[in-house]
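Progress note, project year one: complex with coenzyme A.
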Amino acid sequence: MYAEITGWGKCMPPSILTNDQIATVVDTSDEWIHSRSGIRERRVSHVAPSQLAAIAAQRALAAARMDPKDLDMVILATCSPDTLIPSAAAACQLAIGATNAGVFDLNAGCTGFLYGLSVATSMIKAGDHKRILVIGAERITWYLNWRHRETAVLFGDGAGAVVLEASENPVGLLASKLTCDSGAAEALKLPYFGTAADRFQTDYRQMTIQFDGREIFRRAVKGMQEASEYVLNKTGVSKEQVDLMVPHQANIRIIEALGKFMGMPEEKVMVNIGSYGNTSAATIPVALTEALESGRVKPHSTVLLAAFGAGLTCGAGLLRWGDRVQALGQSDAELPPCDQSALEILAPAIKASVAG
Ligand SMILES: CC(C)(COP(=O)(O)OP(=O)(O)OC[C@H]1O[C@@H](n2cnc3c(N)ncnc32)[C@H](O)[C@@H]1OP(=O)(O)O)[C@@H](O)C(=O)NCCC(=O)NCCS
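Model obtained:
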């Protein structure tokens, strides 16, 4: 038994925040951000991540022409859930009407979607589940401190989703490698969010993403390369036989270094970081959806996924695509309209950051 990807979709919130707009509130420039990261702009969400997830999910279900009631499981990879209890996956289940599905959130930082895809594939292979929705959805801009220019400029919001269905054809995720280098966990963290903090002494305004950019950069390239080589060896697929690599989009220089080590020519590497920045667990399903929509995934393509993130988690997966690269249908689901600009949505956070 295999787990074929039969549907895919994304939901990017409409409000765009450009580098030049950030430069009006933070000491930075379009030139610095673009040359150091490859990012030109990102999206800022006016809604909770479960709402982004629900729209991406409805688009993926339409692409698979699947009734949400036929889903057995909804896995939502996120490290920015609407609430801890109930899970964001439960809110998403309600919004899409997947009334017969079990649900859970999965937090493996930016590697979350890859972890979810691997778990879902194993559940289908084990035979207990036939149809699973795997979503990556994030509202990382909610966490940002606009006094920390080295982190604030890198992230954005969004969601992507895929539908997996049991298949007898040898397609879907053929191998995956998931790791976690917890000895280096301190290199990327979100303190003051969780029960380790003293609830009555903590100033929750200190809660923001903190990282050691150079340390993560080095470990990300090495970790994704090792995980990628593992899945290639395991499947007996050579680097030359990979048709498309879809890596996590945290920094264009990380992507280029990985591409170089893996011997991938530029045209075989999916890059969309310029438009969205790092959308954490949403990154890979959004990039995969755009690769399908732009014809870069073809019938029977071999697709290499690679990601890294908080934990420090890391991973790779090798996908063999099936016969169909066209969506079977389209959803008319849309987010509620947004009448605010990105800077207006972020205004309270920017004000608090500057004051704090
Ligand atoms: C963060 C990152 C872009 C920094 O790039 P870098 O080339 O390593 O830059 P450096 O850390 O050497 O900083 C260079 C200078 O730019 C400055 N700088 C940092 N952010 C800046 C910004 N937004 N605008 C202008 N200058 C900035 C620094 O203060 C430093 O100044 P100094 O030389 O006077 O000390 C890069 O390391 C990175 O992408 N790391 C991984 C990202 C990550 O962890 N993502 C999350 C995990 S999924």
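DSSP finds eleven helices and 13 strands in the chain.
The pocket of coenzyme A is lined by residues 28, 32-33, 36-37, 110, 149-150, 153-154, 188, 211, 213-214, 216-217, 250-251, 278, 309 (CB under 6 Å).
No further modelling is planned for this target in the current period.
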